[in-house]
Write a structure and sequence with these properties.
single chain; mainly alpha; 2 domains; two-stranded antiparallel ribbon; rod-shaped; VPA1267-like; coiled coil
Amino acid sequence: MNGQDKGAEHFAAFTRWAAELTDADARSMVRGGQLNRAEICKAVGCARSVLRQNPRVKGALEELEAGLRARGILPPTSVSEVLPLRPQGQLQRSTERERLRQLEVENAALLATVSELRRRLQRLETLDALVAQSGRLPR
């Protein structure tokens, strides 16, 4: 038996299994928003690679899951892929960007002030040392 014959045999076994699948059976097989692949393989009697590599079986499985989703047995696909970011989320992101920009500007101003104050402190310490050497310390 060659690969095409095996592929056709796997497809026939899958279609027989899918035809006999009840809604209750499908509900019990749901895992992660799709049908449990390991349970499908046990029921059909094939390896897991058949579900990924055999194009006819892969297409039939996708159609089966789409039909189950349409009937409400499987949950809808990921919501984040379907819906764009809400306007509220976009607004929050833009206000966060503006706040970050303001904080960066404020941080730069404070760093400049600290640098200026250190320079002035060093100058005053030098003057204090000169006054102490001359003996004219204030009371």
